[in-house]
Design a protein that fits this description.
Layout (H helix, E strand, L loop, with lengths): L1 E2 L11 H13 L9 H20 L8 E4 L2 H12 L5 E5 L4 H9 L4 E5 L6 H11 L4 E7 L11 H11 L3 E4 L11 H4 L3 E5 L11 E5 L35 H17 L1 H19 L5 E4 L11 E6 L4 H10 L2 E2 L1 E3 L4 H7 L6 E5 L6 H15 L1
Parallel strand pairs: 1-11, 3-4, 3-5, 5-6, 6-7
Antiparallel strand pairs: 2-8, 7-8, 9-10, 10-13, 12-13
Helix pairs in contact: 1-8, 2-8, 3-4, 9-12
Length: 374
């Protein structure tokens, strides 16, 4: 199988990830729940994971790194810490349901959407500048569209938020590990991300980088301040009630180490090079519509969506599966992005890359599409 669905989950992991998880099952207990060696090893592993994340994302304090079960979990904490019932929130037109559904569920929240055509960065900045009006109490913005790989101008959006004193929440689900993610530079209140995509950790892991006051979503034991009936008022304990997923954290630690060894810039450049190669090949096949920026800019990460004349995207996905390719088809949990791009009725076929893909796999994929198009 040639795996081209890393925007959902990076299936191909560094070997040390699985090895660390297997060791953790039998050697790591729960951090903060005892002074015996297994508990101490768990506490050390958890802190090392926070330290690796703090180094990668340029945070001065590892305790600003909170473990979550996913980016969705992290975004729910962030959104419900910043947004209150009746608030007005500004989002981009490329948000995932992990952003839009929590906002929709909050009573009386008005959502404004900054929409701009795909890959038109200047227009996106203009839309945000125009729509950050005095009633806007928060901005929630994805760094990269999970559907189209469109890299939003997050530096400029962050500057606008700072200028207007509006808190910013960044969804880094598709950028962490392949693009620089810098909460301090952005002055972001929160940055959320999964562990199982560009950080090469296992499913069931995520991180919330916290630079603002947090709202507790779940109460319970933390192994600290146990005499109190209120949750601790300090991070990360305030947001980490219950038993930690130590096998997941041990695996995520190795994934973070892999990203730091390889280098974010190197991984990102490799993915962008291959995705451009894919666009160059697909655009030469009659009947294939490719969603791509210009081939000489950096407005797209390692994600490529396309459509084929006369075939719905699910049919294309089925034919690719029969030829040994794993892609994703449909709306990708992001109907707002499809509405903005004009593909809500069709969805798209999405191919997405990781550090483990090779140029030859991209060429093989293009040939497979050419066979389907005949």
């Amino acid at each position: 199988m040639i795996y081209l669905d890393s925007a959902a989950t990076t299936l191909q992991k560094p070997g040390r990830v699985a090895a660390a998880m297997a060791r953790a099952v039998n050697t790591l207990a729960s951090p903060g729940r005892g002074g015996h060696p297994a508990a101490q090893r768990a506490a050390q592993t958890a802190f090392q994971c926070r330290e690796e994340a703090a180094k990668l994302f340029e945070l001065s304090d590892p305790e600003q790194v909170v473990f979550t079960s996913s980016a969705t979990h992290a975004l729910n904490i962030a959104i419900k810490s910043v947004v209150k019932p009746g608030d007005t929130v500004l989002v981009s037109g490329y948000e995932h349901n992990a952003v839009t559904r929590p906002l929709h569920a909050m009573e009386g929240v008005t959502v404004k959407t900054a929409c701009a055509p795909l890959f038109e960065t200047e227009e996106m900045v203009r839309q945000f500048r125009q729509m950050i009006t005095p009633e806007v109490s928060a901005v929630v913005c994805t760094h990269v569209s999970n559907v189209f790989g469109y890299v939003l101008p997050i530096d400029e959006i962050a500057a606008l938020c700072k200028e207007n004193r509006v808190p910013l929440i960044v969804d880094a689900s598709q950028s962490a590990g392949c693009l620089p993610v810098t909460p301090c530079k952005w002055d972001a209140a929160f940055v959320a991300m999964p562990g199982h995509k560009g950080l090469y950790g296992p499913q069931g892991t995520g991180l919330l980088l916290c630079r603002a006051t947090t709202q507790v979503l779940m109460e319970g034991g933390t192994g600290s301040a146990s005499i109190l009936q209120a949750m601790p008022d300090f991070l990360p304990d305030r947001l980490e009630a219950g038993t930690h997923n130590m096998p997941g954290i041990a695996g995520l630690l190795e994934g973070l180490r892999f990203v730091r060894r390889q280098g974010v810039e190197r991984i990102g450049a490799q993915e962008r090079g291959m995705i451009r190669r894919m666009a160059w090949g697909l655009e030469r096949i009659p009947g294939v519509r490719v969603f791509a920026g210009t081939l000489d800019d950096d407005c797209q990460s390692g994600v490529r969506s396309f459509l084929m004349d006369g075939l719905d995207c699910e049919q294309v996905g089925e034919q690719l599966a029969l030829q040994g390719f794993a892609v994703r088809c449909g709306l990708h949990c992001a109907p707002l992005a499809h509405r903005t791009a004009g593909t809500l009725d069709s969805g798209t076929v999405r191919a997405s890359l990781s550090a483990f893909n090779k140029p030859g796999e991209v060429d093989h994929f293009v040939r497979a599409i050419a066979r389907i198009a005949i």
